[in-house]
Design goal:
By secondary structure, the protein is an alpha/beta fold. 43% of the residues lie in helices and 12% in strands. The protein has helices at 2-12, 18-25, 30-48, 87-99, 119-129, 143-152, 166-172, 178-190, 208-221, 247-261, 270-275, 279-285, 298-301, 319-328, and strands at 51-54, 56-61, 104-109, 133-137, 156-158, 194-197, 200-201, 225-226, 229-230, 267-268, 290-291, 332-334. The strands form three sheets. Strands 2-3-4-5-6-8 form a six-stranded parallel sheet, with helices on one face. Helix 9 runs parallel beside helix 10 (247-261). Bound molecules: 5'-deoxyadenosine (5AD) and iron/sulfur cluster.
Length: 347
């Protein structure tokens, strides 16, 4: 316990050391980690109060040109019907999101270049018709494409780095390049997007040291949002036999991200809720301040399965469900575009 107090004191004086973060991530019991949870909750409350931002997500295409070993919609998974939601149907879904007073839409897809043909028009259309913030989560593109989509009206972009362990990155991404992915994040920052990134927790072969490096990478990048989640195996992938039941490591990471990066937006993600029925509630209690109700039309929902047993694929998934989750964590959803509140917090 004394060691934890010592580390917390250093952190409060803005001294972050790798060995301390490693010590924290290696803690085995919630009781010993409690002072970190308490600090992250306090920081979150100072910035965002008890408020939670909702982002309505539409998974509009499950085509993907890539073959990431962990992902259920990887190119080589033939055991899956592919879809692209027609333009008009996406707009119809926007009506539902607006009616629920959700003020951000996240347009998510596999890395599907075909979508670039309609995305500019779609973004402009959404911006014209609705007073809503647009987040894109569509993968890697050249600078010029990011630039065009920003000009069309996109506000934010999510691109997880997935892991900063270069060896591990290479092992899991047969057709991706770490440096290129990182470059994309810096392009997005340059272009004025609010940038979200994040990592997977509990990947096969991932070490705790590499999670420490992930945290220091995030500190250096200074993104506006950090979305993380546990790795969960998918039956139709090469990693199908790697188990992961550990929500605690993900919660420790949420807490440390809040403590180190302070005012960033941190979502309680669907993967957290999949690995543990109270995963999202727990995350909201230790530093997360965002939740993403799934508005993908029912017909397509079960085809965007990135991992086994993904939740939120039932018919009546909406902001109402996330309101209950927030309430359980002692918080409430507010109708707000949910931009990052840039506040300097000195612990
Ligand atoms: N388990 C957990 N998260 C996954 N993702 C992809 N596959 C899995 C999996 N098996 C995450 C990746 C990606 C995001 C859209 O989904 O981190 O960036
Ligand atoms: Fe495609 Fe993204 Fe899945 Fe990789 S993680 S296969 S890029 S959808």
């Amino acid at each position: 316990m004394k060691k934890v107090e010592e580390i917390i004191n250093k952190i409060k004086n803005n001294i972050f050391e790798k060995e301390d973060v490693l010590y924290a991530l290696n803690i085995k019991t919630e009781k010993e980690f409690a002072p970190f949870f308490q600090l992250s909750e306090e920081i979150c409350e100072k910035i965002y109060g008890k408020n939670v931002y909702a982002r309505g997500i539409i998974e509009f295409s499950n085509y993907c040109r890539k073959n990431c070993f962990y992902c259920g919609i990887r190119r080589e998974n033939k055991n899956l019907e592919r879809y692209r939601i027609p333009y008009e149907e996406i707009l119809k879904t926007m009506e539902i999101i607006k009616k629920d007073r959700v003020q951000t839409v996240v347009l998510q897809s596999g890395e599907d270049l075909k979508c670039d043909e309609f995305l500019p028009a779609l973004i402009k259309d959404i911006k014209e018709k609705y007073d809503i913030a647009i987040t894109l989560s569509i993968g890697e593109r050249p600078y010029e494409v990011y630039k065009e989509l920003k000009k069309d009206g996109a506000d934010r972009f999510l691109l997880r780095i997935e892991t900063t362990d270069k060896e591990l990155f290479k092992k899991l991404h047969p057709d991706d390049d770490f440096e290129n992915r990182k470059q994309c994040l810096y392009y997005l920052k340059d272009l004025g997007y609010e940038v979200g990134t994040g990592v997977l927790i509990g990947l096969p072969w991932q070490t705790t040291e590499s999670l420490v490096n992930d945290l220091f990478f995030l500190k250096e990048l200074q993104p506006d949002m950090v979305g993380i989640g546990p790795f969960i195996p998918h039956n139709d992938t090469p990693l199908k036999d790697f188990k992961n039941n550990d929500i605690f490591m993900t919660l420790k990471m949420v807490s440390l991200i809040r403590i180190i990066l302070k005012d960033v937006n941190i979502p309680a993600t669907t993967a957290m809720g999949t690995i543990d029925p109270y995963g999202r509630q727990k995350a909201l209690k230790v530093g997360a301040n965002v939740i993403m109700p799934n508005y993908t039309p029912y017909l397509y929902k079960d085809k965007f399965k990135l991992y086994n047993n993904k939740i939120c694929i039932n018919e009546n998934c909406s902001v109402k469900c996330t309101e209950i989750i927030a309430k359980y964590a002692g918080k409430k959803i507010i109708s707000d575009k949910g931009f990052r509140k840039k506040i300097f917090i000195n612990n």
